Amino acid sequence: QTGSVIVQPKSSIKVNPIVVKFSGSIHVSDKETISLFQTHKNIAVGEGKPKLEPKPYSFPFEFLVPDNLPSALDFGKKKLTRIEYKLIAVLDRPMMPESLCPKIEYPVTILEFVDVTKATYSQRKEVSSASPGKCNVQLSVPRSGYTRGETIAVSVVVTTSSSYVRKDALTIDLIRRVKIQTAKNKIEEEHVLKSNKYDLNIIGPFNFSQSTTSQLVIRNTPPTVRNQGKILKIHYKIRAQMVLDDKKAPARTFIVELPIVVGTWPPADVPIDDDEDEDVVHYMGEMMMSDDDDDDDDITWIEDSDISDLYEQIFFNT
């Protein structure tokens, strides 16, 4: 990837080479930080003891994105974990500690390329759970790969051996399972992202079955993380559970589950309402910049609209 640091001094200033840092890290419950990588390079601004005049300057640079990185993600208010990547540009000044030098931080969104249009994710999936002579629950989806913003059409067929009528007897859930394991923390959680309940009204006399279709929308949630070593895994599944009352025995629950993949490509065709879920995924093209200590520096920000060929700019006004 390529980018540029733009400096516009308000007056003549002496400077050292500009330092550009690129890093990635995993943060676990705001208690532990694990570095994925760290790189830095110096951008020369001139020969000898360079001096910048009060006019715009542009200093190009290149940076390499390492392979096999997990997607950037943030669980929002849950603060379960987050993966972030960022570029930091420091305008190094002579005889000034780095902490006091003008600095800009730019979040970079990296998404693992998971194409859900591949044949692996395009085939119909089906699973069933049978209890001989009692009940059969069959769960199916048209494909196993989806992206954020899509709707999953879930089909459930319940077959019983006799008439069965019960309110809210069938529950269909979209489940997210998160597993985090580090030297200091071990977290396993299961989150119900969407849940629909249905009545069963199986009365026969010749066909003791009922077919139900449920629409589950995938909203703000991180993509599937399949294999980031042993540190982090995020999996998704559809769960159908049916409660069967029997006058001669205690109530029983039949559960069937189907794994699905939440990928990153292609993008959703419809806008996603971020207010309906607290989980957040930051997409490429968003840029935010900050300055630590120099109140005289006017910091600006831009948005990049070309996701496929990201060209980043970082601005200083000094």
UniProtKB/TrEMBL annotation:
Q: What is a single molecular function from GO for this protein?
A: ubiquitin protein ligase binding
Residue intervals of the Arrestin C-terminal-like domain: 131-267
Tell me a GO cellular component: plasma membrane
Give any single GO term for biological process.
ubiquitin-dependent endocytosis
Domain of life according to the entry: Eukaryota
- UniProt xrefs under SMART domains: Arrestin_C
Stated family: Belongs to the arrestin family. PalF/RIM8 subfamily.
Protein name in the entry: Arrestin C-terminal-like domain-containing protein
